[in-house]
Amino acid sequence: MSLLRLNFLARVLSHTPKLTTPTSTHQLTINRMLSDEVDKAKKAATNNQQEPTIFSKIISKEIPVKIIYEDDQCLSFHDVNPQAPVHVLVIPKKPISQLSKSEDGDSNLLGHLLTTARKVAADLELEDGYRVVINDGVNGAQSVYHLHIHILGGRQMSWPPG
Fold it and tell me: Which stretches within 47-148 are classed as H helix?
């Protein structure tokens, strides 16, 4: 079963009160996938957030990625675990662990990140629309404590998202 189909089923199952216990292999797989992301977020929250993140290593070029866009403030690249046909990240070069930990002085940078997200989406020809997501903290399922913006597109998004 494709990841796209599993994601769709996960959304359906999460809004179906009668299906409280898994009754099939597919439901177990979906539940495990959702649980894995939450577990990653919980583990990341307990780690020392002062340690270099995978994103800081990408910024310093210690970890190679195919960069879509880069300037003096941010860079954008494809997500290694895509959740949509198009799934890219925009990250600031300044180490900000979470949106909720940003400061008023970061306003221009935060605006620049969203402007960059818009430009990257246009470059990727997502003219039919896309979703922009920022996960924040444990309950937001943030698994890397370096602020990042997800751009998801290439398919119809559903609502509610989580």
Answer: 54-59, 107-123
pLDDT, tens digit, 9 for 90 and up, residues 108-124: 999 999 999 999 999 99
Asked if pLDDT for residue 79 goes beyond 50, the answer is: yes
CB 59 within 8 A of CB 95: no
Ramachandran assignment for 129, one of left (phi > 0), alpha (psi -120 to 50 degrees), beta (any other): left
**Average pLDDT of every residue of the chain:** 82
Other Cβ atoms less than 10 A from the Cβ of 40: the count is 15
Q: At 63, list the tokens.
A: 């970890």
- Compute CA distances 62 → 15, 59, 77, whole Å: 42, 8, 15
DSSP characters over 66-84: -EEEE-SSEEEEE-SS-SS
Active site residue ranges: 148
